[in-house]
Amino acid sequence: MGDATANAIRILLFAGLREQAGWAEQQWSADATRPAPLTPRQLWQALQLPGELSRVRIAINQQFATADTPVQAGDELAFLPPISGG
Asked: Mind listing the pLDDT tens digit for each residue in 10-34?
């Protein structure tokens, strides 16, 4: 049997995003038959996450990325809200 997480994208939400969405982590099935790789922008829209993506930091496998960076099965995708303070 294969590892279920190997065929999925692990999506993490932090701080206010987690509280607004009501969840901290989800597995998104990465369909191997999809013609083009998914992007954080597409996943943000599909998950109907709150707020504007342009104000959120994105990390793929713990490296900052853009909203249009391809995400593949086995990747970890994190959405981090803006941090305020001074």
From this structure: 999 999 899 999 999 999 987 765 6
Q: Where are the domains of the chain?
A: 1-51
Q: What one-character-per-residue DSSP string does 21-35 give?
A: HT-SEEEEE--TT-S
User: Which residue stretches of the chain have pLDDT < 50?
Assistant: 1-2
CB 21 within 8 A of CB 81: no
CB contact set of 63 (below 8 Å; sequence gap of 6+):
none
pLDDT score at 17: 92
**How far is 37 from 24, CA to CA, in rounded Å?**
23
